[in-house]
Design brief:
Helix content is 34%, strand content 7%. The protein has 271 residues and is an alpha/beta fold.
């Protein structure tokens, strides 16, 4: 697959569609790189393995410094990030040419990803959807058991901010987690459960389920299960899934407007 990916990157630079291409380096490192010349040796070493990097965050950081179109070699979760970020004015979709890298079945299974293939993969995608998994204790029918599980999980947090810093969807200049009225400045470990619930609520209509937060968490908190459940609340109530439809904006943006909330089952928040 590396030959096909390298060819697609060179084509984007040669045909003028992109003045620069964002890619990850050799397999085993997933080091982000920017290539501007079709003869750049990094293009021939572009990563095609199962290592992942939140490319959207890298693009948001550097694209303002570049002129012209840009191409991005990434996974399906990267594509969903760009779809959602465009809705919030964080990237210009007209500048981006996405070069889709399909995930292997092993990676899809490990992530529990039901979208392993970008629509325009550079090669045919052989991976099938995997069943999204939630930690069993996190979905227990017993509310007390669920509460105990999450409080125990949150208690391991060391407030490293890795989950926030690795997430391209956390782009706010003023973060609620830095609000001294919500989260105490000396709270290390952080105030629980408010610290994690603040981010879970924020992710409910932003999270594209890439799983990078859980992968980077040194305390092994099952953050993906937390955010998947938050996403499910929005999906059940409004039928909205972040990153899926580029023409559909989050219903949360309608707060303050008169809206039809039909479909939100009475009392479902307490089940």
């Amino acid at each position: 697959m590396r030959e096909e990916l390298a060819a697609a990157i060179r084509e984007a630079l040669e045909d003028g569609a992109a003045a620069a291409v964002f890619l990850t380096g050799e397999d085993g490192t997933a080091e982000p790189r920017v290539a501007r010349d079709p003869s750049d040796a990094a293009i021939e070493k572009v990563a095609t393995g199962d290592e992942r990097y939140p490319m959207a965050g890298f693009v948001m950081m550097l694209s303002p410094l570049l002129e012209g179109g840009i191409a991005v070699a990434g996974r399906e979760c990267d594509r969903r990030m760009f779809v959602e970020l465009a809705k919030h004015g964080q990237v210009d979709p007209d500048r981006i040419r996405f070069i889709g890298i399909p995930c292997s079945q092993e990676l899809a299974d490990a992530c529990g990803c039901d979208h392993p293939c970008p629509p325009d993969s550079i090669v045919a995608c052989a991976a099938g959807p995997a069943q999204a998994r939630l930690v069993e204790e996190a979905t227990s029918e017993d509310a007390a058991e669920r509460f105990a599980f999450w409080m125990d999980s949150f208690s391991r947090c060391i407030k490293c901010m890795g989950c926030r810093n690795v997430c391209p969807m956390c782009y706010c200049k003023e973060c609620a987690l830095d609000n001294l009225e919500l989260v105490g400045p000396e709270s290390a470990p952080p105030d629980i459960p408010i610290f994690h619930l603040i981010r879970a609520v924020d992710m409910a209509d932003h999270c594209v389920d890439c799983g990078m937060c859980e992968a980077i968490c040194p305390a092994e908190i099952p953050l993906r299960s937390l955010y998947r459940q938050a996403r499910e609340v929005v999906k059940e109530a409004f039928g909205y899934e972040p990153g899926v439809n580029p023409d559909e904006k989050s219903p949360i943006e309608k707060l303050g407007e008169v809206s039809d909330l039909a479909g939100m089952e009475e009392g479902f928040r307490t089940t």
